[in-house]
Write a structure and sequence with these properties.
Blueprint lengths: L1 H51 L2 H8 L3 H11 L2 H7 L3 E5 L5 E7 L6 E2 L38 E8 L2 E9 L12 E7 L2 H11 L2 E5 L3 H4 L18 E7 L5 E8 L11 H42 L12 H29 L9 H18 L3 E8 L2 H8 L1 H16 L8 E6 L2 E7 L3 H18 L14 E9 L9 H21 L5 E7 H9 L4
Parallel strand pairs: 13-14
Antiparallel strand pairs: 1-2, 1-6, 2-3, 4-5, 5-6, 7-9, 8-9, 10-12, 10-13, 11-12
Helix pairs in contact: 1-5, 9-13, 10-11, 11-12, 13-14
The chain binds guanosine-5'-triphosphate.
Length: about 525
Amino acid sequence: MFASAVFAFRIWVQLPIIEKSLVKVSAQELTALNFAFKQMSKPLHTINYDYAVWDRTYSYMKSSNMSAKRFYEQHEYPDDTFKSLKVDGVFVFNNENELVFSKGFNHDNDQPLVFTFTDFKQYPQNKALSPQRKVALPPIEPQIESPSDVPSKTGVIATQYGPALFSSTTILQSNRTGPIMGYLVFIRLIDKNFIDELSQYTVAGVTMSSLTQDEQNGSGINLDSNVAPTKLTASSTRIVHNIDGKPLFKLVLNHTNTSLPPLIDSSVIILLAELSTLLLLGYLLYSYFLVNPVRKLAVDIEEMDKSREIKKLQYSYRISELVKVATHFNALMGTIQEQTKQLNEQAYIDKLTNIPNRRSFEQRLETYCQLLARQQIGFTLIIADVDHFKEYNDNLGHLAGDEALMKVAQVLTQQFYRAEDICARFGGEEFIMLFRDIPEQPLCHKLEAMINGFKELNLPHPTSKTAKYVTVSFGVCTITANDYAFKSESSVIARQVILAADKALYHAKASGRNQFSKTVMTLEQIEQNNSDPIT
Ligand SMILES: Nc1nc2c(ncn2[C@@H]2O[C@H](COP(=O)(O)OP(=O)(O)OP(=O)(O)O)[C@@H](O)[C@H]2O)c(=O)[nH]1
């Protein structure tokens, strides 16, 4: 797509501009051709003028002395003069348009030439050679006032040797006074050497060729017209006209730049290379500042998702939007962390008493049972039940009952110091406790401390048949391992120990409440009880 854009630019923008400028160059070459052709007739005109407005030529025309005339003809127009002046023919006419003197000499190949174009009977159109365009000029008039008024004429004329440039000037005294004594014509053949010289002026290649039928009939562009080419062509043709205005021959200009540069050249390759480098640089910057940070952000979040662990994103991004994303993400993660923490707490904490709930206890019990079965670490489970709590509620109201339960929880938890031990609300007015690997004496001491704690709390319970204050009964079951290899599931222990503690509680209640009843079990007994369906 990128390369297509470059090619489209090349085809639709660059190449048309180049073509336009090349067409302009072609037009300039044609202008140069016309200019050069005119320039080449100037030396001919200059020397023709010099010879015509010259006292010796004037005297020659005036003189009737034949030997003087021959002297002029031989000494002023020797072969060398033709060569040095680059002329191929000299013709002197009198005012009656009669040829007085003529000489032809090819200055390139030193060959004498005998021209016939001066035979005005055969070529009447050539009478136009006369600078005043008259067949006969008056012998005296007109007087010539200034050099610029000297009648002269240049153009192209057909000869039997091919077309020739001519220059024709009236014969006058060198001070340009006196009567016109006729006119002098110089010609230069338009041959190969002439064309070669013309080519040097124009820089482009020029050839001369004959006209087609259509061109003879007037089609084609004149050499001195201002018609510029409109499109790029290999060559252009310009028609040169004869003295009588008829098409005579054509010049073919072979233009120097005729074709457009190729679609892919060194400039296109350089442009492509430059744009590719820019694109690559842009991509690298884009990757460095945007893609890589976004990718790192995605990887960090993906890792967080896999590890299920909420971490703060480390952001050192250079783009402010990404810094914002990371900041907001971290803030969101903080909120989620806080909410998760609260949810966890709610899931494992009893709402009323603010101590661990039954689920929390069960998890801990499971851990204890596994430790017991695998590592022989014993533990004690205690179920505490508020005595006559139904009467308390009935008498003092449910809200007072709630408050009483909160205070019971406080008294019980006062005996817990170690993190591995737990005091939880089991449900209703029942609490459940676990002490890991606690010896008999400290255990009894703790139980007595709890019973005394309620006594000290002295929460009035007017309808209690046990005491005037709220009392609690405890069912205690201690499990010892005794190096017994326990084979059953550890969950069996949990069920059995709760059953045993419950039995003990029942016993404590039956024995008058406000006391604890304690039982001890071994792992072996638990396994036996489990296999006995009646237990
Ligand atoms: N206020 C209050 N009462 C509760 C809550 N949970 C259970 N109870 C009440 O606790 C009472 C338990 O009564 P019972 O199971 O008959 O036991 P008791 O009255 O304590 O009798 P004994 O255990 O034999 O001493 C019921 O009246 C329950 O409604 C609680 O969260 N708040």
